[in-house]
């Protein structure tokens, strides 16, 4: 019996499971899913958990229940590519015949002194819970500094504004205009939303140091009662320690069939994979679809396609609280209530089909 081991229960490996079960998995293959948590977490909604506008159970989805799916829990310490084993800090190793590494990402602090020690995070569900506790316990008129104004920072700042109207919120952005990679019309809309709702934006920011209760922007100290870091990501430490080729961002370089060069039994999906798009749940799912196709070909002993089709991503949707949002769908910018409704609908559909 072959053992397909899925490392991490994120969006990519959840898609692998749902494509192979209940009917596509060969009789001689079992799936073993390894995760720290006993449920799939909706990472795209961690900002709302941290802000206190949704509760914990809203962003948990049970793993599928099937006789050919075995779920194991533990803290992975290392992946032994030569021995084909997953090693743990707290249990015996698990061998694999094929493996899909989907261990996600961690905050990237860009060597800013003090940032790992004095900032909160929303990269994991545990960190988001911790951040929620810190933000929820702040006194009235306290100051929250959010470092990084990408999608996560923008959604956290807007959601926190709705949750705690008494707080002073400062959003630090490196660009001339917030969300500068989006069309200017969309960026101006988001920037004006923050101005209208009393969120301070510091553009052209450069955080040079963080101390307890202080953010240094261009070496100028700015006091804050809580500091949340959303200024970049990097692959998980387990992946960073793998002795394989990586790109400039530390993501694993793969063949066109998504496996390690020279190793057709190990695949990498999601945030840890070097792909021609920014990491996202949508991208991880699209990649997982292709990985399943390749696995099925190899299991049947069939030749692999010479190339894989380009990913067809539908766009990006972001929220500004519960009533407004923004997005880029088919290269068309969307602002206002419609993109917020679209995002809510997609989230409901995901939970309905995966729960």
UniProtKB/TrEMBL annotation:
* Required co-factors: FAD
- What does the entry give for GO biological process? aerobic electron transport chain
Query: Which UniProt keywords are given for this protein, alphabetically ordered?
Result: FAD, Flavoprotein, Oxidoreductase
Record SUPFAM superfamilies: FAD/NAD(P)-binding domain
The FAD/NAD(P)-binding domain extends over 3-283
The Swiss-Prot or TrEMBL record annotates one GO molecular function as: NAD(P)H dehydrogenase (quinone) activity
PANTHER family, alphabetically? Answer: 64 KDA MITOCHONDRIAL NADH DEHYDROGENASE (EUROFUNG), APOPTOSIS-INDUCING FACTOR 1
Q: Which family, according to the similarity comment?
A: Belongs to the NADH dehydrogenase family.
Under which name does UniProt file this protein?
Answer: FAD-dependent oxidoreductase
């Amino acid at each position: 019996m072959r053992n397909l081991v899925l490392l991490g229960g994120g969006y990519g490996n959840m898609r692998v499971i749902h494509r192979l079960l209940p009917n596509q998995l060969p009789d001689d293959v079992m799936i073993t899913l390894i995760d720290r948590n006993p449920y799939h977490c909706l990472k795209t909604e961690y900002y709302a958990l941290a802000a206190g506008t949704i509760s914990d159970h809203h962003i948990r989805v049970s793993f599928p229940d099937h006789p050919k799916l075995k779920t194991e829990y533990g803290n992975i310490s290392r992946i032994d590519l030569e021995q084909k084993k997953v090693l743990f800090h707290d249990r015996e190793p698990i061998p694999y015949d094929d493996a899909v590494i989907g261990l996600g990402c961690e905050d990237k602090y860009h060597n800013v002194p003090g940032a790992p020690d004095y900032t909160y995070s929303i990269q994991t569900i545990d960190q988001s819970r911790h951040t929620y506790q810190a933000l929820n316990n702040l006194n009235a008129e306290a100051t929250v500094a959010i470092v990084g104004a990408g999608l996560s920072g923008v959604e956290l700042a807007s959601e926190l504004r709705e949750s705690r109207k008494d707080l002073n919120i400062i959003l630090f952005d490196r660009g001339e205009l917030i969300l500068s990679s989006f069309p200017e019309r969309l960026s101006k809309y988001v920037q004006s939303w923050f101005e209208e709702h009393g969120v301070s934006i510091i553009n052209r920011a450069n955080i040079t140091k963080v101390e307890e209760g202080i953010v240094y922007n261009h070496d100028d100290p700015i006091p804050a009662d809580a500091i949340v870091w959303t200024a970049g990501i990097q692959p998980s430490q387990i992946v960073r320690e793998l002795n394989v080729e990586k790109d400039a961002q530390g993501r694993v370089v793969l063949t066109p069939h998504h496996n390690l060069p020279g190793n057709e039994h190990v695949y990498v999906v999601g945030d840890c994979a070097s792909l021609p798009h920014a990491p996202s749940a949508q991208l991880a799912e699209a990649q997982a679809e292709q990985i399943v196709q390749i696995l099925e070909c190899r299991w049947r002993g069939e030749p692999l396609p010479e190339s894989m089709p380009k990913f067809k991503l539908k766009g990006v949707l972001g929220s500004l609280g519960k009533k407004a949002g923004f997005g880029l769908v088919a290269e068309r910018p969307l602002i206002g209530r419609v993109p917020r409704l679209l995002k809510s609908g997609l989230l409901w559909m995901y939970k309905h089909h995966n729960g």
